[in-house]
Amino acid sequence: MADRAQPLSGRSGTVIAIALAVAVAVTFAAVAGRAEATVGLSAADWAAIRFTLMQALASAFISTALAIPVARALARRSFVGRNAIITLLGAPFILPVVVAVMALLSVFGRNGGFNHAMVWAGFEPFQIYGAHGVVIAHVFFNLPLATRLLLQGWFSIPSERFRLAAQLGFGPAEIWRVIEFPMLARFAPGAFAVILSICVTSFAVALTLGGGPRATTIELAIYQAFRFDFDLGRAALLGLIQITMTLAIVIAALGLSRQDGFGGGLDRPLTIWGVNGVGPRVLDGVAITSVVLGLLVPLASYFGHALPGVLRLPEAVWWAAAASVSVALASTALTISLALPIAVRAALGRGTAVELAGLVGLVASPLVIGTGLFIMINPWIDPATLALPVTVVVNALMALPFAARVLIPAVRDCLASYGRLGVSLGLTGMAFVRVVLLPRLAGRLGFCAGLAAALSMGDLGVVVLFADPETATLPLQMARLMGAYRMEDAASAGLLLTFLSFGAFALFDGLGRRYAGD
Amino acid sequence: MKYLAFAAGMMTATIAVAETPVLTVYTYDSFVSDWGPGPAVEEAFEATCGCDLKFVGAGDGAALLARLRLEGARSDADVVLGLDTNLMAAARDSGLFATHSVTADYDLPIDWTDDTFVPFDWGYFAFVHEAGKDVPSNFRALADSDTKIIIQDPRSSTPGLGLLLWVKEAYGDQAPAIWSGLSDNIVTVTKGWSEAYGLFLEGEADMVLSYTTSPAYHLIAEEDASKAAAVFDEGHYMQIEVAGTLSATDQPELVARFLDFMVSDAFQSIIPTTNWMYPAVTPEDGLPKGFETLAKPPRALMVPVDQAASVRDAALAEWLTALSR
């Protein structure tokens, strides 16, 4: 495909990808360069590497596998509230970690509703703390994201294919074999790869629910190297292992993914025929109901208890909210302007290398990146004055892989279906982007922008290292409230944060979907 | 655009105060927060010093030291406030700190003779529980009971490290056995103090590792007497928080004034109800009402400062082995 005439060039994407990879490499080098003495990895470090790998593989696999029936159910059923559910599926993933963990524990914790019910019914209480707790939390976070990513796959199938299937008398099994399975072979590895990358750097979730040092992740080992032993060499080395390991798995996953799409269609709304038997309907009902309950019950139980305090929040919290909204909007714009060229570059060829460069920002340890940036910035400028700009950039880098993953298949389809037509009409470069690419990507772009805004809003990330008392973001202010015993206020600040994140997400996602007519 | 205006506002603000001398104090994040001692301390000191007191927050005590080591002699910091006795040896070895000439009549459970660091508050680690519940009175009884506890990871949290040294100091060679016994009492190990305390308040455990002064927050700020700290008969581990001067400071006189201010009533009387710790020098008016209700440990435990690092590494290895089984 690469040697065929194309309306767009991948050059700017290549430049961005190289710049990203170099930037991450430089921050790592800055940390390693300050190392005073390096010792080898301890047995505990190796245990952390093993645990990180196991929990991330399990979490990514379970999330992706469970997402398949849910995404299919949402694709082939139409009912009142379907759009609301699709939007809701963005919720847990964009929740601040502390809020999500508290929400989960308010149902499954020792004092949660689920265990009260179990004990009442005469069963042993369920113990969520342990390696399985980590996986449950990651699935809670990521199953909805996986569902959204796979749902994009269903929407990428021209509805003419299903019409043809109906004319040929296909039932659910044939549709699965001929249309849906090949589509999933293209989309599922990407979803798996992205979720795996998120779970690798997980730290607070793993530690809180893991139940102890058995559930130590690499990120904690990096933390220990940095603040306990001040061994920067080991911190950089562990960070490097984390990246290499993740990228190796992602390469393998993306290598499995099939690249050929279904060709163009007339953009009719998606309807799938031949799946209205009792079996498929019950299956879909169960899939949708269990996901909605699984999301709503923990969220509602958390919200119910945090809601009354929102209006009583101290003024400082509202200022922090304003700072967070500004940061989120800026990093959303940055994410989209980086992701689009990368997606074009990746779609022109096999593009795995370009996508991997985008992924580096996500799988690189935030502590190492933050420290590296600190070491580089500090000799020149007071880091505190750059707290918010650095947060904007780092948050954009973190959202980039999601945006790229969502955009790449769509850009690829768009180029395959309309690229030659564009070239023959002389519609190339920015004109092609404006007339063909952007309108066809509207739905995906809205989803990406929503994800980027919400992720940026909720991330505590590097701002801690650069913190300036006067320019706190909302997640930092929430952490400060917790540190000052004000757990109730912190919960309410968390709720405000969730409203803002979810509001930004729903706004962008809704705009995109309205424009695209999905 | 909003953001640009915001940034521009910040820059002009910095320029406006550039003419008065600036004293830069690095401290941990919760000290500078709107709910910590920072704002009141800043106001009180600026009222007398004719200077601009600028707090810079950086994570917690250990992160603070890491940041100083990253910055080295180039650091803008004049004073570092918020290291503790476990970090003092490493801080001194960094060679970044100067000696001080502060004298004060400290109300600490131990004699304070250090010539580099000045204490500003202190507290005892303790397990906090719902008042009125029957709780174990030492680690052996805790290990034998089915009381559920939440603790913090010593690698990422100051209280977590305090507990590690507490058990080591109280039990020495038997510490691994104590940890094995405790492993079925531990619900989970969190990254930091606030996650643990939050989980405890949600009812996830019977007790949480915190400070003997924690019930004072609930009593004074929330008028809620329902929390208490368990007294352990082997004694309680102490945390003393200290401040030190950077030898590279360009404001030696202001620094000396700040350290004197720090051990004076104006500063010390802010500490109890903002940092929820005991002041290093009890103010003339005494402690706030409510502090007299707090648990009094029978004995104060502390690993000597110069042994903290070696004891810590050995104790961590034991802890990891005992809890990883």
Which structural traits does this protein have?
heterodimer, A: 518 residues, mainly alpha, MetI-like fold, 2 domains, 21 helices, 76% helix, B: 325 residues, alpha/beta, D-Maltodextrin-Binding Protein, domain 2, twelve-stranded mixed β-sheet, disordered N terminus
Total strand segments of chain B: 12
Q: For this structure, what is the CATH class of the largest domain in chain B?
A: Alpha Beta
* Class by alpha and beta content of chain A: mainly alpha
User: What's the number of extended β-strand segments of chain A?
Assistant: 0
Give a written overview of the molecule:
The complex is a heterodimer of chains A (about 525) and B (about 325). Chain A has helices at about 10-35, 45-75, 80-90, 90-95, 95-110, 115-120, 130-155, 160-165, 170-200, 205-210, 220-230, 230-255, 280-305, 315-350, 350-365, 365-375, 385-425, 430-460, 465, 475-485, 485-515. In chain A, helix 7 (about 130-155) runs parallel beside helix 17 (about 385-425) and helix 9 (about 170-200) packs antiparallel against helix 17 (about 385-425). The two termini of chain A are about 30 Å apart. Chain A has about 525 residues and is mostly helical. Chain B is α/β, with parallel strands linked by helices and about 325 residues long. Chain B folds into two domains: about 1-120 and about 240-290, D-Maltodextrin-Binding Protein, domain 2 (3-Layer(aba) Sandwich); about 125-240 and about 295-325, 3-Layer(aba) Sandwich (D-Maltodextrin-Binding Protein, domain 2). In chain B, helix 7 (about 160-170) crosses helix 13 and helix 8 (about 175-180) packs across helix 13. The longest helix of chain B is centred in the last third of the chain and has 17 residues, at about 310-325.
